[in-house]
Design a protein that fits this description.
The complex is a heterodimer. Chain A is of the alpha/beta class. Chain A has 2 domains: 233 residues, Rossmann fold; 98 residues, no CATH class. Chain A is 37% helix and 21% strand. Chain A is built from 15 helices and 12 strands. In chain A, strand 11 and strand 12 form a beta hairpin. In chain A, helix 5 packs across helix 6 and helix 14 crosses helix 15. The longest helix of chain A has 18 residues. Chain B is globular and about 75 Å long. Chain B has 3 domains: 43 residues, no CATH class; 219 residues, Rossmann fold (3-Layer(aba) Sandwich); 148 residues, no CATH class. In chain B, the strands form 3 sheets. Chain B has an 8-stranded mixed sheet, with helices on both faces. In chain B, helix 5 packs across helix 6, helix 5 runs parallel beside helix 7 and helix 6 crosses helix 7. Helix content of chain B is 27%, strand content 19%. Chain B contains 13 helices and 14 strands. At the A-B interface, helix 8, helix 9, helix 10, helix 11 and helix 12 of A face helix 1, helix 2, helix 8, helix 9 and helix 11 of B. Chain A: It is found in: Cell membrane. Chain A: One of its GO terms (biological process) is peptide transport. Chain A: It comes from Nocardioides alpinus.
Chain lengths: 367, 443
C-alpha cells in the first residue's frame, strides 16, 4: 500500500486549527442509478468540536451512513456525486485527491463499523491488521514498534492478555472483543475525529455498556470529536452532546440531546420517541408506531418529505406540508435548536397531545 | 389426519386488519407502487388521536390464567465431537440445563438473556425442532418431549414459531400465497380451492394487501416481510406462538407496528406467546411475566413489576442497569451502572455451583460448592441466588443454607436434611420462602 505521509507542518496546522474540528456545509450526495438519480443526502449542515459527541439518528435509508461515509471519503467518485463542503481540521476533503485522502483517513479521522466480523479480515491476525493501520501512517516506524503499539492499544481497550491475543484471528475473539479490537484499530493513530456507525447494535446490553464506557473514556483521554450513528435513542441520551435527526436525506431536527429528547418540536422525532418502549416508563404509556414506511428516495414526496406519514399535518393550514419544503428554522426552546416543520405551535401539540399518551408520568412535571 | 371443523377459517378479517390497513400499509397509490414495489408510504388523513388509539399500552397480567404449556426440568445437551476419523463425543454443550416454567393461556412469558444463554434453544425445543435430552413439556395433557415425529404432526398446528430474520426465513422463490398457504396444504385443513381465500384473510389480518398474494418476498420491506412470517404462523390457528426475536431485525418505527400487531393478535385469537428477545424494553412492554436466563439456566422469574422494579438476582440487576435510558437526557451523562467484567463462560464446561459466580461481585465460597435452587421468594417471584436481595441490600449470609442443609461455606451439615419441596415446579406455589424471616409464608 502506498501512502502519503502527512508533513509535520500540516499535522501541526490541523491541531491548531480554530473552531469546530469537523464542519459539514450544505452536503449533497447523489447516486445515479438505472431508474434515475437518488439523492441520499441533501442540504446537510453540521459541525463537531473536539471533545464533543454528535449523535445522528434516523431509520435505515435516511442518509446517516451515507453522509458519514462522505466525510471519510469512502464513496467511489465514479458512482457518487458529492457537492457542498466538508472541512476536517480546516482541510477541505470534498474533491480531495485519493492520495491526500489516504493521508487523512485512518490518521486524523477513523471509523468504527457495525459488524466487526465483516469489517475485520478473517484471514489475517488481529495484530497484523492493527500493525498495518499503524505502519501506513508511520512510515519510519519499524515492525517491532508497530507490534508494541498494537499490543498497547489492545491493552487500552481492555482485552485480557494482549501480548498473547495479538496473534489470534478474528474468529477466536468474542463479539465484544472484536468490537474492541476494531476500536483499537480506529484509535491506533490517535485520530481527532472518530465516526462510530452503529457501534453497539449487534451486541448484548452488558457488552454494549462496556463498549460505550470505553468510547467515553477514550474520548476523554484523546479529546477527539466523536460522531455516533445509531437508532437507539437510549444510547443517544447517554452519549451525545448534540443530536441530529435525519429523515429521507435531510436534517429534520438538530439540538442538544436534552432539547431533542425532552422538548422535541418535529413530529418525526415525536414518532421515534413514541415508538420505543422504555425500561422505566409507566406501563400506561402507549407504544405508538409511525404509520407507513420510509419513502423511496428515487421519487421523494413533494414538500416536507415526512408529510405522507405525518399525523399532525392536518394542523397546518392549507396544503403547505405537501407543497413546500419547510426551512430549517430555530425552534422555540433555544437558538441552537433547529427544526424543519410547518407546525405553528409544536410545543403545545407535544405537551397536550403526544406526551399524555407516551409518558403520562411526565405530564405533571412539565406543566 | 382428522379434519377439525373448528380449525376451518376461524380467523375472520376483523377490525384490526382493517385498522392496520388504514394506517397506510395498504394505501397503495399508483405513484408509490413504482420500482420499489409495495413500499407504501402514505397514511391518508389520519390524525394523531386515531393513531394513538391504535397503539397499545403494556400487556397486563392475568394471574388466574391456567397454564397452557408447562415445562419441567427441560434439558438440551449438544454433543461435541472430536476431530479425526472416529468422531468420539468428547463433551456436551449444556445449552439448556434444567429449566422449568409455565406459559399462561392467552398470556405471554418473556425470555431474556445474553446471546448464548440458551433462550433460542428453548424456543426450538418447544416447537420440537430439537428433541430434548431430558425433562418434559406438557401441552394439553401430552408430553411434547416424548412424542415422535408422527405423533408430533397434529400438535405442530398448535405450536408455531415466528422467526427473527424476515429476510432468511421466507423462501425467495415462493410467492407469499405459497408461503402462507403451505401449512394449510400440509395439514389438509381446507380444500384446495379454498386455500387462496384463507391466505387472503390472513394477509388482511396482519395488515397486508390481500391482493399481493402472488408477489415474492423481495417485493416487500422488512416490516412487511415480518408480517408475512406472522401470517404464516397464524395459518393453523395455533394456541402457542414462539416468537424468537420477532422485532430485533426491524427499524425502530417499524418495531412498534409489529409489536402492536402481535398484541392485537393476542387479544383477538387468545394466543399464548413465548417471547424471546434481548431487548429488555420490548419484553417489558409485551410480557407481564419474564424469565431471565444465564448460561442455560433460569436465574430469576417473576412478574413485570418485580423483575424490573425490585430484581433480586445480581445478574438481573446488572442486565437492567446496562440498558441505556432515554430519560437520562434530562439529567445528562451516563447512568451509574453495575459493570460486569469479562465474557460469559463456555457452556461446555460451566462453572461449578452457581454459573454466574465467576462474574458476580457477591460470590463467596458457597457459590462454588452448591448450586442455588430456583427458590420461590414471593407470590410470583423465583430467584436462584444464595445472596438474593434487592439492589444494595444483599444479605451478608446465604439465605439458602437452612433449605439445603449446608453451612455458610456450603459444606454439608450432618443431620440436616434438605427440604426440597418447592424448588423446581414449573408454576408458582401458594406458599413461599420469605427472605426476611427465612420462614415459609403464604398469602
Amino acid at each position: 500500500m502506498t501512502s502519503v505521509p502527512m508533513t509535520q507542518s500540516s499535522a501541526a496546522e490541523r491541531d491548531q486549527h480554530e473552531g469546530p474540528f469537523l464542519q459539514v456545509e450544505n452536503l449533497k450526495v447523489t447516486f445515479p442509478t438505472q431508474d434515475g438519480p437518488v439523492t441520499a443526502v441533501s442540504g446537510l449542515t453540521y459541525s463537531v468540536e473536539k471533545g464533543k459527541t454528535l449523535g445522528i439518528v434516523g431509520e435505515s435509508g435516511s442518509g446517516k451512513s451515507v453522509s458519514s461515509m462522505a466525510v471519510m471519503g469512502l464513496h467511489d467518485a465514479k458512482s457518487a456525486q458529492i457537492s457542498g463542503s466538508i472541512r476536517v481540521g480546516g482541510t477541505e476533503v470534498v474533491g480531495l485527491s485519493e492520495s491526500h485522502m489516504r493521508g487523512l483517513r485512518g490518521n486524523s479521522m477513523a471509523m468504527i463499523f457495525q459488524d466487526a466480523l465483516a469489517a475485520l479480515h478473517p484471514f489475517y491476525k488481529i495484530g497484523g491488521q492493527l500493525e498495518e493501520a499503524y505502519l501506513v501512517h508511520h512510515s519510519s516506524a519499524s515492525k517491532r514498534d508497530a507490534r508494541r503499539k498494537a499490543i498497547e492499544m489492545l491493552d487500552r481497550v481492555g482485552i485480557p492478555q494482549p501480548d498473547r491475543r495479538v496473534d489470534d484471528f478474528p474468529h477466536q475473539f468474542s463479539g465484544g472483543m472484536r468490537q474492541r479490537a476494531m476500536i483499537a484499530m480506529g484509535l491506533i493513530n490517535d485520530p481527532s475525529l472518530l465516526i462510530a456507525d452503529e457501534p453497539t447494535t449487534a451486541l448484548d446490553v452488558t457488552v454494549q455498556a462496556q463498549i460505550l464506557d470505553l468510547l467515553q473514556d477514550l474520548q476523554r483521554e484523546f479529546n477527539s470529536a466523536v460522531i455516533i450513528i445509531t437508532h437507539d435513542l437510549g444510547v443517544i441520551a447517554e452519549m451525545a452532546d448534540d443530536v441530529l435527526v435525519m429523515y429521507a436525506g435531510r436534517c429534520v431536527e438538530y439540538g442538544t440531546a436534552k432539547q431533542i429528547l425532552t422538548s422535541p418540536e418535529m413530529p418525526y422525532t415525536w414518532g421515534l420517541l413514541s415508538s420505543i418502549p422504555d425500561v422505566t416508563a409507566s406501563t400506561d404509556a402507549r407504544l405508538i408506531p409511525i404509520p407507513g414506511n420510509p419513502p423511496s428516495l428515487l421519487r421523494p414526496p413533494p414538500g416536507c418529505s415526512f408529510h405522507p406519514r405525518c399525523v399532525h399535518s392536518s394542523k397546518v393550514a392549507g396544503d403547505l406540508c405537501s407543497t413546500e419544503l419547510p426551512e430549517l428554522l430555530p425552534a422555540s426552546s433555544g437558538t441552537a435548536h433547529l427544526k424543519r416543520c410547518h407546525l405553528t405551535d409544536p410545543v403545545g401539540v407535544y405537551r397536550s397531545e403526544v406526551l399524555p399518551e407516551i409518558a403520562p408520568e411526565l405530564v405533571e412535571e412539565t406543566r | 389426519m382428522t379434519q377439525d371443523p373448528n380449525a376451518q377459517a376461524q380467523i375472520e378479517p376483523t377490525e384490526l386488519g382493517a385498522n392496520a390497513a388504514e394506517t397506510g400499509d395498504r394505501q397503495l397509490t399508483d405513484e408509490t407502487s413504482d420500482a420499489y414495489g409495495s413500499h407504501e408510504v402514505g397514511v391518508g388523513n389520519l390524525d394523531f388521536a386515531t393513531v394513538a388509539e391504535m397503539g397499545h399500552t403494556a400487556t397486563q397480567l392475568d394471574p388466574l390464567a391456567p397454564a397452557v404449556l408447562s415445562v419441567d426440568n427441560l434439558k438440551m445437551y449438544f454433543p461435541v465431537k472430536s476431530s479425526g476419523v472416529v468422531r468420539r463425543t468428547i463433551g456436551h454443550v449444556q445449552a439448556v440445563d434444567g429449566i422449568s416454567f409455565e406459559v399462561p393461556k392467552g398470556g405471554s412469558l418473556g425470555l431474556v438473556g445474553e446471546s448464548g444463554c440458551g433462550k433460542s434453544t428453548t424456543g426450538r425445543l418447544i416447537t420440537r425442532l430439537y428433541k430434548p435430552t431430558g425433562g418434559s413439556m406438557m401441552f394439553e395433557g401430552q408430553d411434547l418431549a416424548q412424542l415422535n415425529n408422527k405423533q408430533m404432526k397434529p400438535l405442530r398446528r398448535d405450536v408455531q414459531m415466528i422467526f427473527q430474520d424476515p429476510y432468511t426465513s421466507l423462501n425467495p422463490r415462493h410467492t407469499v400465497g405459497a408461503i402462507v398457504g403451505a401449512p394449510l396444504e400440509v395439514h389438509k385443513i381446507v380444500p384446495k380451492n379454498q386455500v387462496l381465500k384463507r391466505v387472503q384473510e390472513l394477509l388482511e389480518v396482519v395488515g397486508l394487501n390481500p391482493e399481493h398474494y402472488n408477489r415474492y418476498p423481495n417485493e416487500f420491506s422488512g416490516g412487511q416481510r415480518q408480517r408475512i412470517g406472522i401470517a404464516r404462523a397464524l395459518t393453523l390457528n395455533p394456541k402457542v406462538l414462539v416468537a424468537d426475536e420477532p422485532v430485533s431485525a426491524l427499524d425502530v418505527s417499524i418495531q412498534a407496528q409489529v409489536v402492536n400487531l402481535l398484541q392485537d393478535i393476542q387479544t383477538e385469537f387468545d394466543v399464548s406467546f413465548l417471547f424471546i428477545a434481548h431487548d429488555l424494553a420490548i419484553v417489558r412492554h409485551f410480557c407481564p411475566e419474564i424469565a431471565v436466563m444465564y448460561l442455560g439456566k433460569i436465574v430469576e422469574i417473576g412478574d413485570r413489576e418485580t423483575i424490573y422494579g425490585r430484581p433480586h438476582h445480581p445478574y438481573t440487576q446488572a442486565l437492567l442497569s446496562a440498558v441505556p435510558d432515554v430519560k437520562q437526557a434530562a439529567i445528562g451523562g451516563r447512568r451509574e451502572r453495575i459493570r460486569l467484567e469479562g465474557d460469559v463462560p463456555s457452556p461446555i464446561n460451566p462453572p461449578s455451583g452457581c454459573r454466574f459466580r465467576t462474574r458476580c461481585q457477591f460470590a463467596q465460597e458457597i457459590c462454588a460448592k452448591v448450586e442455588p435452587p430456583l427458590l420461590q421468594i414471593g407470590q410470583r417471584h423465583k430467584v436462584a441466588c444464595h445472596f438474593a436481595g434487592e439492589l444494595g441490600a444483599h444479605p451478608a449470609t446465604p439465605v439458602t443454607t437452612a433449605l439445603l442443609g449446608v453451612d455458610d461455606q456450603g459444606s454439608p451439615v450432618s443431620g440436616a436434611a434438605p427440604t426440597n419441596t418447592q424448588l423446581t415446579i414449573p408454576g408458582y406455589e401458594e406458599t413461599w420462602y420469605d427472605l426476611k424471616t427465612r420462614q415459609t409464608t403464604g398469602v
